What does this fold into?
Amino acid sequence: MLSSLEDLLSVPCGTLLANCCGIVTKIMDTPKKVSVVFMCASGEQFVATEFKAIVFSPLGVQIGTAQKKQSLAVLQDFLCVGNVLKLVCVKAQRFNSKFDGKVFFGTPLDYEFIITKNSKVFKETCGATRVDKFVRLEAGRFFALKCVLTAPFTLVDSMFAAVVGDLDAKRADLFVSGDCLSEKFGSLGKNDQLELKRCFIRFEDVALQIHVLSSDVVACNCKVVLDGCLTTPVKRKSDEMNLVSLKTQKK
It folds into this structure.
């Protein structure tokens, strides 16, 4: 079960015994650490970071830099967008004054989770709900649906992306992650219909984003012509509703 925003706001900064569960939406890999952005049950984002450990050669002797490498001990087998991960025994570390993590990661929380040597990660299973209209899509859940390409895919940050529509002429931005994207989808174009067996959504301002793995995309081998101009099925809450009172967050 995904963590709720209320659950996350109740976590006191500094605890080493925090637990959380979310959908992996973004992986930010650097030479020294990996930060994973998660989505909670209501669509808000939170972050978990693991610092890479230096692993020396079997002889235990370091010569230059050739005999050492940096690697992950906990997250390395789980880093895939769309995975649902449960983190156990993680530290809630407050963002410091030199780094505005709330703005950088787009999270309402004052902290990020830190993976420690005592932390555990479990991959959870979540089923997909079949829908036939974009207006029924909600953040924090998985869906199965059909959509229609309005143009060929284009490469965006190692993902294949395209504007898609449903039969009610509602619009969404589709992002496909995975391997061999050109071979699988490079020949597809306008009016080609796709079946998404398992996807999740995000809202970027009022834009609806659909994220899916390439293994969960099937070309229907048929053309569907959408009528009229596509419009966005706005589901984002107002800015007033999105404001999170700092007083509700435990210090």
